[in-house]
Fold:
Amino acid sequence: MTPRWRYWFAGALFLAVVIAAIYLPILRRHIRQAAKLQQRSEEQARRELTQPTVINPSDPRVKAKLYWASGADDGTLSAVSVELPLSNDPVLRAKQVLNTLLAGPVDTELRTVPPDAALLAFYLLPDGTAIADFSEALATSIPSGIESEQLAVDSITKTLEANVPKVRRLKILIHGQEMETLAGHLDLSQAFLVNANAAPGSRAAATPQPTAAGPALTPPAAPVKLAAPAAKP
Amino acid sequence: MVLDPAHGGTDLGARGTGGIHESDIVLEFAAQVRTALEAQGFQVVQTRQGNANPSFDDRSAMANAQRGSIFVTLHIASTGVPGTARVYVMNDLASAADATGLIPWDRAQAPFVSLSRKLGDQVSALIAQRFKGSPAAAQTASVRQLRTTAAPAIAVEISSVTVEDRAQIDHMAPGIADAIARGAAAFRPTYVVPANPGERP
Structure:
C-alpha cells in the first residue's frame, strides 16, 4: 500500500471513531426512552385490566350479602351484610360485589380468596351463565386442598346468588384460560350452579360477550365411552 | 379396592414448613390403609407406588377397568384443624343419556353419586369417632378426581400439612386406615356390582 492510501485509511478510521463517539450516546438515550415508554404502557395496561370497578355513589345503596369464612375453621361460610351502592345492571353489580368480596373482610383471618387475586373480567350470557375471569393469583396463592378450594368457590357463588339474581351458573377462568383444577383438587372444568331458579335474561349483557352462540367455551369433546378392561389402563 | 395417593412426581400437592409435602405423606398413609384393607379381605390396587404422577384420567381408569371396584383418594390439606379429617363425595352430576347404555367418561361418577355418599357417610362416621372435631357425615365437593370415576368413590382429606411436627400427622395414619377399611367393609354388602365394567349400577 502506498503511503498516500495509508493516510486516507487512517483518516477514514479516525472519522468513524469521532462519528461513533457522537452518535452512540444519542442512540443509548433513544433506547432508554423507548424502554421506559414500553414499561409505562405495560403498567398502564395491567392497571387498567385490574382496575376495580368504580363504585358509583349515585347507584342505589343496598344491603349486599357477602360470604366469608365463619371463623369456626370447619369449612363453613357466614353471610356478612355490607351496605354498598350497587348498579341495577347485573354485570356491573356482579363486578361490584365480587370486587368487594376480593377486597376481604375486616378480619383478614376470615378471607376465602387470596388478597392478591383480582377479577379481570365478568360476562353474563343470555341463558344466565356467568363467566368470571380471575387473575392467576386465585389459583397460585390459594392454600392447596379440597376444603380451601371449595370454600373459595362457595364464597364466590353464594355471594353472586345473594346479590345477582340473573346468574344461574358460574364458569371460572384463570387469566382467560379454562383450568382443570383450581389448585390441584377442585374441578373447574364444569360450571358451578349458582341459582337454579334464575330466569334467563331477555337481553344481551352490557359488556362484550364471547361470540359463541351457546355457553360452551371449548368444542365439546366426544364422550369417551368406557371400554372393556384393557391390557393397560 | 383402588387406592389413590394423590399427586406425585413434580406435583407435591400441599406444602408445609420443614419440607413436608402432601405427595410424600399420602404415600405413607396409603401403605397403612392398604394393610388395613387387605386385613378386611379386599384386593387392593394402588394408582401409584412410588413418585410417579399419573393423570386424573389414568387414575380413574384403574378403577373403571376393575369390576366392582371402590375408589378412595387420599389427600392432606393446607387448612383445617390439625388432627381432624373429612370425607368428600362428588356433588350431584347430571347423568348424560347414552344410547348404548354406557357411561360418558367426563360424567362417569354421575350414576354412582348416591352409592359414594353411602360409602362416604360410613367412613366419615368412623373417622369422627376416632378424631374429635371431624364431621360425622360426608361432605360434597367438586373434586376433579372423583368426577371421572365410575365406581363408589370418596376423597379423604386429613388436616393438616402446616403442623410443625410431622409426627402429628403420622400418628393419624392407623386410625384413618382402620376407619377406611371398616367403612368399606360395612359398605361392601350393600353394593350391587354392575354385570359389566362401565355399566350403570
